[in-house]
Amino acid sequence: MGYKKVDEKDITYIRQVIGDDERVLTNGDINEEYSHDELSGTSSYPDVVVRAKSAEEISKIMKYAYEHTIPVTPRGAGTGLVGSSVAMEHGIMIDSSLMNQILELDEENLTITVEPGVLLMELSAYVEDHDFFYPPDPGEKSATIGGNISTNAGGMRAVKYGVTRDYVRGLEVVLPDGTITEFGGKVVKNSSGYDLKDLMIGSEGTLGFITKAILKLLPLPKKVISLLIPFPTLEQAIDTVPLIIKSKSIPTAIEFMQREVIMDAEKYLGKAFPDHQADAYLLLKFDGNSVEEIENTYDQVAKLCLEQGALDVLISDTEEREESIWKARGAFLEAIKGSTTYMDEVDVVVPRNRVNEMVTYLHDLQKDVNIRIKSFGHAGDGNLHAYILKDQLNEQEWENRLNEAMDKAYEKAKELGGQVSGEHGIGYAKKQYLKESLPSVDLQLMNKIKQAFDPKNILNPHKIAQV
Amino acid sequence: MGYKKVDEKDITYIRQVIGDDERVLTNGDINEEYSHDELSGTSSYPDVVVRAKSAEEISKIMKYAYEHTIPVTPRGAGTGLVGSSVAMEHGIMIDSSLMNQILELDEENLTITVEPGVLLMELSAYVEDHDFFYPPDPGEKSATIGGNISTNAGGMRAVKYGVTRDYVRGLEVVLPDGTITEFGGKVVKNSSGYDLKDLMIGSEGTLGFITKAILKLLPLPKKVISLLIPFPTLEQAIDTVPLIIKSKSIPTAIEFMQREVIMDAEKYLGKAFPDHQADAYLLLKFDGNSVEEIENTYDQVAKLCLEQGALDVLISDTEEREESIWKARGAFLEAIKGSTTYMDEVDVVVPRNRVNEMVTYLHDLQKDVNIRIKSFGHAGDGNLHAYILKDQLNEQEWENRLNEAMDKAYEKAKELGGQVSGEHGIGYAKKQYLKESLPSVDLQLMNKIKQAFDPKNILNPHKIAQV
């Protein structure tokens, strides 16, 4: 690729820009965690890690990197699952986790302005303390908001409230040549030229470095109630979801889960789940401004579920019960991870009336490929997380069976009108599947856009649509 | 630009592709309407108009145009206000108005799939007949949905429901070289590469020709109630808006209007407006699933308005009254147009707590520039429509004063953190103001993106960020 290797002169320049040696890490100072993310199996060390504190610092380093053709990799909390924040070409890694200030809560415009390193859980807690609501709710609460924007993270509440994209009003971005610019703003409507803001959202740190975000807030719903609904079979549970949607009651969340994943979570958390009677569950959440309002909605849905063969409808209206259910749900990824030696995942999204076909296919795939697969996910928005488990397989067998399972799962998703990733992104690990799923002209357009933003290809190379 | 002029051979080829001479118009057959849109003052005839019926027809013509470097201009109903659908370089105009089929209502995925020439009013009526709701609600109901997507049209309900962009799940597009492709799909979440779908939305027919759209629907709210609230002064009316937002009751719409515009509308419609006691009004809409639910919300807002000096709160809960108020609101543009010899408009959007500064500025600008300006708009989302009226001015005076008023209005909007266009787009008429309002690097990126999609610059040239 013709990148310049980082040398002592570069490090000296970087140290001079940052002026604080503890924020510039090299060689043995670079923690092993900076060489990978949470799952992808992708591993590569940066030559230097810069823990930036401002857009100006990032701008200066990016400008220098651009002039000298040194690759730069943006990184938040490193909780990604597809290798987006791994420095494939080494070079400079810019870590945004110290840029963690909440800059402004604007109650008249219902916006909050934050630095990219603010954690999702910090953001939620802050706005809820002020009686506001930031709806995107990915399972990983210790991700940064910059990372959430970069993958267009979705989460549980997408059924009713949409995804991260729907809550980003404006961005400050450092472009690959070091220019600081802005896309969007505090305005509610905008038809002023091409939508560069939405192009940046979900671009996984390949088009620019997000240094500030203006996010949209909603009033905090005054009341939240969940229903845990046991079904005799997973099929019956999932077949009920399109009927719920069709009934025009829109829950905040519709999750499905199976007994074995729940048991993994109990073991992982050391805490009992409130129900054990069934093989499969739907977990529904409703919110609103009064108990009556919510009851009107969920009564209808509860009736519908019972008609479809649900064994029971358990109402969770205490904070304690609510927490025990959703804590288990939040722990699924880690719990499954703890139940095996190693794993990889698919994050497909299909139209929501095809979820059952996809889940059944994944279930049967276990026998077909002779590998364990556990899945759970967002039945209400069609986004499934399936984990393929290594268990005691040797490396060669694991590679073979994993690849076969992945190929088949993505092919099936495509056949059902789905997409490769609902919320985790493409990064490095899922490139091949993106390539197989999209029209080649779409991939060409993506690479041309990348070139328009980054003609020297220094920012996070080898990701998404690039070879 | 080196475009090829359309000749007899080209016409023969086009007639052969279309196979129906009534759908290929040349010379004297081209209605004068095809040379302009509703407002921009931009005028230029195409050499040939093709009334396409399928993506395949458009693909063949585009491919031919690409090979021969003939400019192509997409057109819907021609209701634009900034010249986006005017054929600046002549060439081929492709009119989508015969592609007006509703292709599928999918109740399980809450989507509707339509051709681009379906009119907004046809779409609304169709989905409401099926008890669904397509929230975007621009004033111009006879626009095509393809046009709405191309300008990212906003409308009255943006306060609660957002804009067109928020309701587009997938697009079928013919690219400038004739390739037919798809962006997005029926899925609710998507993190599979760069967001080409949102890049297409709002690109005013410069990046591709939209031939099919998958739109998101919501359940139809069962009840809608409006409040008409007279205030002694416009300032008091508009100052109340941020307080309503801050009170966390989110109406569907918050519009402001002044007596003189209401009188224009009465004259234009030949129908009395239900109230005449005040100089300024707020018009609020609330929706929900029961009268009680809505009452709980609007009671609080009504109280707040009275505290802020409102003269009265008129509740419109009959269909007849509802229609008389909103029909007047819908007629404002035409009514103002009818009250003068000629006019031009600004469609600025500012943060909603700066609306009053903007409105006051526009009011004072009348004296400053010595020209009449009438404004109304979406107080709840910060999007103002101000009309600058020619009246009896001669051409030279009109040009001078219009330019001065425009320059000053856009400069003020920028100073308030606003954008050039909230929902009407940039097209040809507002290019200069876009250029003055955005960082130059943003404009450069837009032009590079245009080049990535359309290296020969044949699709709708001279629009948005192009010279």
From TrEMBL, chains A, B:
Keywords: FAD, Flavoprotein, Oxidoreductase. It comes from Brotonthovivens ammoniilytica. The keyword Flavoprotein applies. This is FAD-binding protein. Residues 42-220 form the FAD-binding PCMH-type domain. It holds the Pfam family FAD_binding_4. InterPro entries: FAD-bd_oxidored_4_C (IPR004113), FAD-bd_PCMH (IPR016166), FAD-bd_PCMH-like_sf (IPR036318), FAD-bd_PCMH_sub1 (IPR016167), FAD-bd_PCMH_sub2 (IPR016169), FAD-linked_Oxase-like_C (IPR016164), FAD-linked_OxidoTrans_Type4 (IPR051914), Oxid_FAD_bind_N (IPR006094). Its cofactor is FAD.
